[in-house]
Amino acid sequence: MAAWNLSQRLERDYHIRHFYRGPPETIRADDEIRTHLNAQVTQPIFETENRDVAFFGNNASAGLLIVQKVQVAPSPVILVGCVQRELTRRQLPNFTSAVYDKDEFAQQFDKELKNLSSLLEKEPKILFDFQVMINSKGNIYHFDLDRFEQGTWRRKKHLKSCMEFVKSIGKAATSQTDVE
Predict the structure, then answer these.
(1) Which of 3, 66, 75, 123 is spaced 20 to 30 Å from 132 by Cα?
(2) pTM of the entire structure?
């Protein structure tokens, strides 16, 4: 529930975009459903998949799952994290070629960066495991917001480094330069 409440507050106060469309709910799910869901999980940051991880519960969970309505992510997008940057770098060539209207992207991305800068200055815990998606129109979508409550303060150098990395993606998308 904390991530849902946070998403609503950040949307209101900083005009962020996110994918949540309702608060989480607890439902019953039998072993077959949980096994099916676990088989769908991929971790794009890692080259190999770990099928032994039970993301959707195991026998100890008594068949209960917490689910939440979300909107489908736009396509194409680039996944951006300030700690694990390699995935972003690998995705960049395909993403930049999908940005057809460079001026529209630049204009919207500039607005989104202002909101992001304000958010990161006033809510530095959001830097903990920072994850966003940027679409080909320059919109920034925050996801995995439950990380906020797990986070700890990051020094100013992390804030600056993260913002510079995000800005470099915008520059690359509009001018075909390399990402930092």
Answers:
(1) 66
(2) 0.81
